[in-house]
Amino acid sequence: MADIKYYDVILKPVVTEKSMDIMADKKYTFQVNPEATKPMIAEAVEKMFPGTKVAKVNTMNQPGKAKRRGRTEGTTAKVKKAIVTLTADSAEIEVFAGL
């Protein structure tokens, strides 16, 4: 596994209806590097967003979808998502504040 820095772990936030509903429970969804582990994700969130404390990290892997274009076959890139739960006394993540 390559040496992954904390700023390479979180790729982008996931903005869907379901992810917006669980934000009330201080749960935030991010698309993360497929090689990132749960401790790496927790460390990245705490370093990138000051004042946050991670209570729990749940991850899910989605394999790439099979695609065709004529006779050419291939797959899309695989995706890893993480749902990060913050502690009750933790600060809110400001990225989602205006949404």
Would you write up a description of this structure?
With 99 residues, the protein is an alpha+beta fold. It has one domain: 2-Layer Sandwich (Alpha-Beta Plaits). 16% of the residues lie in helices and 35% in strands. The chain contains two helices and six strands. The chain has helices at residues 17-21, 38-48; strands at residues 10-13, 27-32, 54-62, 66-69, 72-75, 79-86. The chain is globular, with a radius of gyration of 15 Å.
Second-tier CATH architecture:
2-Layer Sandwich
- Overall 3D shape: globular
The CATH topology? Alpha-Beta Plaits
Mean pLDDT: 92
β-strand amount: 35-45%
Name given to the CATH homologous superfamily: RRM (RNA recognition motif) domain
Q: Indicate the structural class.
A: alpha+beta
Strands, total number: 6
- CATH class term: Alpha Beta
**Kindly, what is the distance between the CA atoms of the first and last residues, rounded to a whole number of angstroms?**
35 Å
Estimate the helix proportion, in percent.
Answer: 10-25%
Number of separate helices: 2
User: Into how many domains do the coordinates divide?
Assistant: 1
Low-confidence stretches: none
Biggest sheet, open or closed, and with what strands and sense? 4 strands, antiparallel
Helix-strand string: EHEHEEEE
Radius of gyration: 15 Å
What strand line-up does the widest sheet have?
1-2-6-3
